Description:
The protein has helices at residues 2-18, 21-38, 40-43, 82-88, 137-144, 161-197, 199-214, 217-228, 232-242, 244-258, 262-269, 274-282, 288-311, 322-329, 339-365; strands at residues 65-72, 95-105, 108-113, 124-127, 145-150. Strands 4-3-2-1-5 form a five-stranded antiparallel β-sheet. It folds into two domains: 2-35 and 162-365, Orthogonal Bundle (MetI-like fold); 53-156, no CATH class. It contains 15 helices and five strands. By secondary structure, it is an alpha+beta fold. The longest helix is centred in the middle third of the chain and has 37 residues, at 161-197. Helix 6 (161-197) packs parallel to helix 15. It is a multi-pass membrane protein. One of its GO terms (cellular component) is plasma membrane. This is ABC transmembrane type-1 domain-containing protein. Keywords: Cell membrane, Membrane, Transmembrane, Transmembrane helix, Transport. InterPro entries: BP-dependent_transpt_permease (IPR050366), MetI-like (IPR000515), MetI-like_sf (IPR035906), OppC_N (IPR025966).
Amino acid sequence: MTEANSNSLSTIALQKFKKNFWGVFSFYFIISCAFIAIFAYVLAPDNSQNANQMHLSIHSKPPGFKVQMLTIPSQVISGQSFFSKIFFGEKNTETEIPIEKYSLKDGVLNVSPYSEGEIIELSKNIKLEHFPKGLTEDQIISKYIKNQIFILGTDKYGRDLLSRMLVGIRISFSIGFVAVLISLILGISLGAIAGYFGGKIDAIIMWLINVTWSIPTLLLVIAITLALGKGFWQVFIAVGLTMWVEVARVVRGQVLGVKRMQYVTAARAMGFTNFRIITKHILPNSLAPVIVISAANFAGAILIESGLSFLGIGAQPPMASWGAMIKDHYSYIILGKAYLAVIPGLGIMSLVMAFMLIGNALRDALDVKG
Length: 370
């Protein structure tokens, strides 16, 4: 009966969720973003590590900017594996030069680097020996000189903004996932122990919760980050250690109510251990609100990471972080190039909104009184 009941309730919750348009839309949007995060380097036009290929001569160009790009292959073999290139980017040792025009004569490639009239035109002569042997002049031109379009333009260092945005999704997703995982492990464990055993154990854990709760989240994250040092993994730990209190309070409240149920009393009478009673009988019936809180915490973690990166104590350059991208370009808003800060801002806003909407949809679907 219990299993059939559980299946029935799960089916009802799933049907209610499917009827929520914004919840379903957010779910597919988040799945799409997760796919992009995993295969960012496959999808990004610039597949170098951290999408960090700089071209200072074409900095701060608008979306849709087109330029001829000359690629001079490197003689150094990186020795990267196929999977390393897909998931961590290519250790790019090639040289890319934006050019305005070129000519080929007597085995020498003469190119005029892109200048847009900012400096006196300087031409460069490149010997064909820099290119692989066995290629004809036409093959070299067709393979190594191509028109490149920057769909979202370039940032102030001349890097492809679209590639930086795609790789930046990884930071947001990673920080959200790891922070929520840490908060769930700590919050569920401490909340369940406090609610089940009560007494002095409950008082001690509640004191710890209240002390942590009283400290502003951003200040606590900054303090932990400064103590652990600046860096990617330090931010993960710092954000996760500040998000467990809400989970712990909710789990404690749920456990206090569930532990009085008859089936828990029956489990005690049968001699089951406290660990089994908590994990098998109490927690499975207490986690519906935690699922909703986790979605909100995921959104909160993304915002906190963006704020830390904006302040310069989050993900460090050259890593692509949406918060750091806003920091680098917020002054461009008054220079007529607001898109450099607006585009990563829209990325943060859309991802956070998706998690909030899916959290609301889950709350409505899991509401047994609805």
